[in-house]
Amino acid sequence: MVTPPRYFWRRVGAFLVDYCLAGLVALVLLLPFLGNTDRIRLGGGFIKMFMCRGVDTIAPDIAAFIAPKRPDATQVCDLWFYGIYDGRILTVVYDLVQTGHSTFSRSLNMPVSKDGELVEPVYPASTLSLAILWIGAGLMVARFAFSPGKRLFGLRVVPAEGSEAGSISRGRAIARDGLKLAPYLLMVFAGSFVTFVISAPRPPSASGC
């Protein structure tokens, strides 16, 4: 039987606490930019309120996605996070067919600006929170020998036996946290690279319902 490492669940709990705190700091840093631009958005994972209304016309570049068909219904939904505007989504319903008691249709959901134009939003919250978790926790471990999560669960990071220093260096602490987060770091930074650098505008996907 494989035994988990010593203090395994306390380490997991400490990591979750640190991750939640890093996400909270990232949210506070992003709040001034929300509502002032149509590109920076929080994305999924946040509780939001939707305010939707029907619209009669859509921009020509959006109508071109379903041409030569015409939309059967369109609506825009404004997303709000505790009173803070977080972007607008346009839904276009087409190919609406009613057979007996059933209704079939296809729809496009796409992010648009306040003027109704297509936009390519970015969602930096996860990348920013991960960077804060990595660098911030590393600096706190180097300074105090624990992060907030480790402090809560009674954990400390101490040098190996024989070391004269009372705490590990900043570089070593940051490298230590980087190694622990390496798989997640690679995944998030690769996704951010694709999103920010090589992504190109493309038609949104259609979905049937």
Helix content: 25-40%
> Which stretches are poorly predicted, pLDDT < 50 over at least 5 residues?
198-209
Residues in β-strands, percent: 15-25%
Query: Tell me, what's the shape?
Result: elongated
Spatial arrangement of strands, main beta sheet:
1-2-3-4-5
* Distance linking N and C termini: 49 Å
Average pLDDT taken over every residue? 80
Verbal overview:
By secondary structure, the protein is an alpha+beta fold. It has two domains: 8-32 and 124-198, no CATH class; 41-121, no CATH class. Helices cover 38% and strands 22% of the residues. It contains six helices and five strands. Helix 1 (8-30) packs across helix 3 (125-144). The N and C termini lie far apart (49 Å). Mean pLDDT is 80; it is low at 198-209.
